[in-house]
Prior knowledge:
Blueprint (H helix, E strand, L loop, with lengths): L2 E3 L8 E4 L10 E5 L4 E4 L7 H10 L7 E5 L5 H4 L2 H5 L6 E4 L4 H5 L2 H11 L3 H5 L10 E3 L5 E3 L5 E6 L8 E5 L4 E5 L10 E2 L2 E2 L12 H12 L5 E4 L3 E3 L6 H22 L8 H21 L12 H19 L3
Amino acid sequence: MNEVFLSLNGKGSRFFDLYQGQAPGATAGYLIAAPRVAILDPGGSRSVPYVLEALEKEGISREQVAYILLTHIHMDHAGGTGTLLQELPQAQVVVHPRGAPHLVDPSKLVAGTAAAHGPQWEQVFGPVETVPESRLLLATEALRLDLGEGHEIRILETPGHAFHHVAYFDEGDRLLFSGDALGVTYPSMAGPKGQYMIPSTVPNQFDPDLMVESARKLAQLPAEGVAVSHFGPYALDLSALPHHLERVLTILTETTDVFVRERGGRAESSPEAVAALAAILWEKVRTDMEQQGIAQEAGAGVPYDFFINAGGLLHYWHYRQTHPA
Length: 325
């Protein structure tokens, strides 16, 4: 298991690879080793063994875990919550009020995952177990979680990636757990100007304006580091992120608009259309990264994120046409 300390001035939070789909370096889980232990975004049920292994390596008993903090309920972040909860007898699940009902009855979550990821979704994420309503704690901005030894957790509503998305800020360590609110970034996306973030525009609640608004909100925090779900910890310049995300979102939405209009204004989400748009989006972003001094191999395969992002952008295009402001 690839487990390392966050390189943030010796702070105690740790991240570990969830090996989503058995692939390393795709999705990270986090552990706040305070007196009242918290696990953030445990991933799908196939990732539960890696979460339990992280606890064991830290010498933390399963009874010491007080909270499972969910940034949102998408399968790669929360699909294994019900399974993990069976191993953590004292833990409460902290989740946005809009997401809570879909943990108690995950049927719509499963259907949405199958629509976005195809029939192989269960092979990647694993089966979904229900979460007892009695073990839910609703994540609102009025709620503060005191984990002890200065680890007071502040909750911030951050829609844009999903309506039910929240971020968590550890005020003691000044560490922001951003989930997907600020996008995704990987080690290969680093350059002289810093880390390149790609907005996560997955179906079906993506909203670019809310995403930028949430980034501006998070940029006001006195954060010394950002813990990103895809993938790992980065000392990102939060103050520059809202402008960056707004600029990249403009590239993505304008490219999608041209793509759909060239196809006669049909925002279809067929596998062929999604694949075609994903390839165009990746080329646009790859070119933008090169302009930022980040070299990406030309002709390489399209990253999986872009297939999911393309589906979300097509859905948003259709929604915008049928729900004009």
